[in-house]
Design a protein that fits this description.
This protein is α/β, with parallel strands linked by helices. About 35% of the residues lie in helices and about 20% in strands. α1 packs across α2 (about 40-45). The chain is elongated. Bound molecules: ligand BES, manganese (II) ion (MN) and zinc ion. Ligand BES binds next to α12.
């Protein structure tokens, strides 16, 4: 974790320090000249640096006895929204890492930034701290010593007219650590990140919290069978890797404002089962537990943030494999609410695992339930790689969620749960089948889940696109993104409309 502080006094130049200056696309080259002299201005112009977002220009200057590194960070239209602020923090940290600097001085006073704190200083501080921390993230667990590049960055001083945003620093760092936890879980190969590993991680989080208001229950195969979780157990049948049903609980010390259940898809490897995936499609399927990574990561954060809601995190973790014991096409599974499901595609396994987790969640008498799942390729076809599909009939919950997403700078889009499409899930010999037709695949997956919510307030978030990054973008490294941990925590820090 970085040491982050805000100051309104100009920081001293020092060796090993990098001065980072945000520069908008409409900056005045005169401002550069006034501050750094005509040489720097000429060099900036010669390099065609125009302040475009995520472009940089760096140089060194003598400040007394100190050779100071300076980087101009392009911020395009300016620090206008959550994404831009977080990106700035990220870019500053990445640049400092490149030059081996230990301390960043981020100059928000600079006229080229044209930054004003806005009406929510803490939020600005939170986003910058989050970005700075994420800028140092790398998944290096499997790199040998020679190939590891531990971050040089230890501290950041943010120089601005006001130090009010500093009250958001701690929460921003907690959010970033939760994102990093989620990324680490997702980036781990399926050989490492098994259902047992997820349960062990949950245990570590509970032990680190060391508090009676945080607890964990883990159910094994026999216990899940005893609870009649037939859909989940159908998927789990094909793997010798033991399934684990994970139930984390957090109870606030002050009066709880409501009970929230968060469910995450935890398929630690999705081969497709007998409806087997082609090799290319299987390549990223260690990431099919990204929903569970998000809710477990968010849980770690919400405990530290002492959110005012009682929160239950549920993960029905399993692999989806091929073997002599695996479930077959045509099998009929019975979920824990008694509904029967004919399996017409073993690759639509996520909804089967989620079905029993949702039934379990509904029995906790929640004020609301939200699930997160890398559920369908169809959702990526609809919305592209960066945007999650949000499905609910609960207008207030949708509004609260979309507001939280905007504040935290994550992309979400609502999709309709059209009841008419349930016709695609009809079976002649069971209550339903698990897979619809090709068109509307994200919606029929959502409609399938809606059969297991037992009348509770509920929202489904299909994160198949944004959970996985095929290459680095924004503040995201290639691989697991940790999406949408920031939005989950933003929601739980705010006032949710309940009752
Ligand atoms: N885990 C996949 C969905 C997925 C695909 C996520 C690609 C991220 C990237 C899910 O279990 C799946 O296989 N869904 C099928 C559903 C189909 C069989 C109805 C799909 O999307 O093809
Ligand atoms: Mn699948
Ligand atoms: Zn899957």
């Amino acid at each position: 974790m970085l040491e982050i502080q805000w100051t309104s006094d100009q920081p001293q130049s020092a060796t090993g320090q990098m001065l980072a200056i945000p520069v908008r696309a409409e900056f005045e080259p005169d401002a550069i000249e006034a501050r750094f002299g005509p040489g720097v201005r000429a060099a900036v112009e010669a390099a065609s640096f125009k302040g475009k977002s995520s472009t940089t220009f760096d140089f060194t200057q003598m400040q007394g006895d100190v050779l100071e590194r300076v980087v101009l960070l392009g911020v395009g239209d300016g620090l206008v929204d959550a994404e831009a602020l977080r990106q700035l923090g990220h870019d500053a940290a990445r640049e400092a890492e490149k030059v081996g600097a230990a301390r960043i001085v981020l100059d928000l006073q600079a006229s080229t930034a044209a930054w004003t704190v806005g009406d929510d200083p803490a939020q600005a501080g939170r986003l910058l701290a989050q970005g700075l921390e994420l800028g140092t993230y790398a998944y290096d667990r499997f790199l040998s010593e020679d190939n590891r590049k531990p971050s040089s960055v230890e501290a950041a001083t943010i120089w601005a007219d006001t130090t009010a945003p500093s009250e958001g620093t701690a929460s921003g760092q907690i959010i970033a650590a939760s994102v990093a936890r989620a990324r680490d879980l997702a980036n781990g190969p399926a050989e490492l990140v098994t259902p047992t590993f997820l349960a062990e991680t949950a245990k570590e989080i509970v032990e680190a919290a060391g508090d009676a208001n945080v607890s964990l229950t883990v159910l094994d195969r026999a216990q899940c069978i005893a609870l009649n979780m037939g859909c989940y157990m159908g998927v789990a049948k094909g793997s010798p890797e033991e399934p684990r049903f994970i139930h984390l609980t957090y109870k606030p010390k002050s009066a709880s404002k409501g009970r929230v259940v968060l469910v995450g898809k935890g398929v630690t490897f999705d081969s497709g089962g007998y409806s087997i995936k082609p090799s290319d499609g299987m390549m990223d399927m260690k990431l099919d537990m990204s929903g569970s990574a998000a809710v477990i990561g968010a849980f770690e954060g919400l405990v530290k943030l002492t959110v005012p809601y009682e929160v239950h995190v549920l993960v029905a973790a399993t692999e989806n494999m091929v073997s002599g014991n695996a479930y077959r096409l045509g099998d009929i599974l019975t979920a824990s609410n008694g509904k029967t499901v004919e399996v017409n595609n073993t690759d639509a396994e996520g909804r089967l695992t989620m079905a029993d987790a949702l039934v379990y969640g509904s029995k906790l008498d929640p004020d609301l339930m939200i699930d997160f799942a890398t559920l369908t390729g169809a959702c990526m076809v609809a919305l592209g790689p960066y945007t999650a599909g949000v499905m609910t009939e609960d207008e207030r919950l949708a509004t609260d969620w979309m507001c939280a997403a905007e504040k935290s700078g994550e992309l979400m889009w609502r999709l309709p749960l059209q009841a008419r499409l349930k016709e695609q899930l009809r079976s002649k010999i069971a209550d339903m089948r698990n897979t619809g037709e090709r068109f509307g695949g994200a919606l029929t997956a959502g409609l399938f889940l809606s059969e297991f919510i037992e009348g509770k307030r509920w929202m489904h978030v299909d994160i198949a696109g944004p959970a996985m990054a095929s290459k680095a973008h924004g503040v995201t490294t290639a691989g697991g993104s940790g999406f949408p941990v920031p939005t989950i925590l933003e929601l739980l820090m705010g006032d949710i409309q309940l009752g």
